[in-house]
Amino acid sequence: MTAYPAWTPASRPGIIPLHPLTFGTILGRSFAALRQNPRVLLGFALVAQAVAYIVLTVAVGAVAWLTFSRLDTVTPGSDDFNAILAGSITITAIAALLLGLAVGALTIVVQAVVIAEVAHAAVAEKLSLGALWRQIKPVIGRLLAYTALMVIAVIVLVAVLGGAILALGLVAAPLAVGVGILVALATIPLAWWLGIKLLLVPAAIIIEHQSIGKALSRSWVLTRRRFWRTLGLLLVVSLIFGTVSQVISFPLGLLSSAFTSIIAPTGDPDASAIIAIVVITLFAQILTLLIQSVALVVQSTATAIIYIDARMQREGLDLDLLAYIEHRDAGATGLTDPYRQHIGREVEPRLPVNPYALAPASAPGADAQQYPPQPPYPAPPQPPQSTAPPQVPAAPASPPPASSPTTWAAPGASAASGDKTADPKSPWS
């Protein structure tokens, strides 16, 4: 029995084409990814940041109210008043710092979820929030440790530079001011450069499950010769959301000022004016929070796509992803993670594919080099020439009969008023 291959449907397209990407493709797909799994990408980010913002505001406000309310029990200007004021400020600042770190940790978790989701969306897979959490749970502590190390390094660097400038200021104040300005200007490009070189550390930790040291090395290698492209992409994304934020906040600020001037023209607002100002402020904060959530998702998505594109160009990751999709759609089970195969493999550099570009014309002589000329066919043998004079045939005595098979007929017509052997279905009949 002959076995025929079973029909399988075409593979579902992911959020990115599986070949080296252009700048516009990375930028466009970073925004288009929101439609892939909005419940996880946008819903989780918005809810998490909203809860964190509310908890931070309520907690810091409660700590401030509990500490500063003790000032009512002492005489203003006394030593006890000054001591309680200093203590209240310190306690409130520490509480805000600790809660801010907690909010930062939650933001890191959101970024990790987004990066893991984009990695699956590239091969047309949509996972639930629980499945994504189970995937990033083993490495979330490593990611938080890396973030803490970066914060500590920045604090130490600022403390050392600030202490050196202050020490110099004790000797020569004008020189310290000039050095401080130069140092501040020099730290801007240095911060951008280090930020780009270390951009893919979270992706390497989340997707490849690398240690912090190996993730630093991986990010340093993958971002090689990609600085300006990556910097331009991040600047464009930041500029877009900064512009949107200003477009929304500026009219709301004008509206709040107009309400205040109309409801309380004398400068003494009543209850209705206060309520209107609070409502407008809350509305502005909600819109700002929504913009921040979308910006966080888009920036994290862009980081994940930059990571995938860097590996496709340097390590041929697209080949592993295509093989994984082919085996998965064919019904294979127990497939290994394609992102953890051939880590560090080097392939020949490839340019991004432009689907709208025309095929380049071949150079003169290219076809001749690719297809060398073939030797000509040998001429058919000619019959030997006879030297005898040609003989003229005798004329026939009478014309052939009408039924002779040598009779010629016009195309489409039979020789004897209709050929019964012609195919009636032929287009030439």
Provide a concise account of the structure shown.
By secondary structure, this protein is an all-alpha fold.
Describe this structure in words.
The C terminus is likely disordered. The protein has 429 residues and is mostly helical. It is globular and about 80 Å long.
Strand content: under 5%
Along the chain, the helix and strand elements come as: HHHHHHHHHHH
Q: Describe the global form.
A: globular
Percentage of residues assigned to helices: 55-70%
Low-confidence stretches: 359-378, 398-429
- Arithmetic mean pLDDT: 76
Instruction: Return Rg in Å.
Output: 39 Å
Secondary structure tally: strands: 0
User: Helical stretch count?
Assistant: 11
Largest sheet: none
- Whole-Å distance between the termini? 41 Å
The helix-and-strand class reads mainly alpha
Can you give keywords for this protein?
429 residues, mainly alpha, 11 helices, 0% strand, globular, disordered C terminus
Please write out the topology.
Layout lengths: L22 H10 L5 H31 L10 H43 L7 H43 L1 H25 L3 H8 L3 H11 L4 H37 L7 H45 L1 H13 L36 H5 L59
